[in-house]
Prior knowledge:
- By secondary structure, the chain is an alpha/beta fold.
- It has a single domain (4-326), classed as TIM Barrel (Alpha-Beta Barrel), CATH 3.20.20.370.
- It is built from 13 helices and nine strands.
- The protein has helices spanning 14-21, 33-46, 57-60, 66-74, 95-113, 129-137, 152-162, 167-172, 216-223, 227-243, 276-293, 299-309, 315-326; strands at 4-10, 52-55, 78-81, 119-120, 142-143, 190-194, 197-201, 249-252, 295-297.
- The strands form two sheets. Strands 1, 2, 3, 8 and 9 form a five-stranded parallel sheet that branches. The chain has a four-stranded mixed sheet with strand order 4-5-7-6.
- It is globular and about 50 Å long.
- The two termini are 35 Å apart.
Amino acid sequence: MKSIASLSLDLDNKWAYMKTHGDSGWESFPSYLNVVVPRILSFLKERGLTITFFVVGQDAALGKNKEALGQIAAAGHEIGNHSFHHDPWLHLYSTSQIENELASAEEHIEWATGRRPVGFRGPGFSLSQTTLEVLARRSYLYDASTFPTFIGPLARAYYFMTANLSREEMRQRKNLYGSLRNGWQSIKPYRWQTKAGTLIEIPVTTLPIIKTPIHLSYILYLANLSSTVALRYFQTALKACQLTSTQPSLLLHPLDFLGCDDTSELSFFPGMNLPSEKKLAIVSEVLSLLSNQFTVVTVRHHANEVAKVLRLPLIESNLQQLDRRVR
């Protein structure tokens, strides 16, 4: 039997990228969800993949997005919480601010999709002990915010070079993509023990030992140099995961499915100089490699399997109770 691998997508919208980058006009919440969501859902359906979508509460609060977000839930995908305001400086929030952030996101995500999230990923991989405690207190079952890599500061420096940020805004974003110490975090799932209870952590997988990124946006960045090199790098990563008994958790973003022919305002993001046709071809190859070597599941499923290994109370029984409560 093949080992499992979870697959998720952070549904960051156009305005969220502009906001983090310091671009004007984000306050009107420009969106590409009506274009990218049907494209992603069709792509996944063709390959028989069911994944986790981490949804931003602000998008769920806007009526113009309800149809697109409802389509995700109707297709059977898991809905996770990606915060309300999508501030990568969420770790600077007070306890009450985090409570409000999560509660507001939950309320609007449930309104738009009919699903109450039980999993969370912080924007920009933002995480704090306070966030973990609030998640546990609010009956979340897993977090997926850790990104174990040493290159976070380099990615942040590259991002800042193209950004339109004041000194204060740069200070807020000083931990965007993490610090060097994140590289020492485990790439395998584990549990957090907080004052409020236990959470399972499903890290975004990086290349075992070396801990360079392997998520799709990074693969597409490498494809700027050579598609062949990018795909061979990903094949090496999957082989390393098998050799180290690592069940990977792979991350997608909407911009993995959009190209320079779809939007020009996000040209600062790596890989956005490629046309959508080429990007989709690479994503297809990557997901085929993943599916051939692993059984692809949602992060919720992944967390449930980890709970069994750690001999924790089965997550699925708790989830069923939460699902009944929502209905």
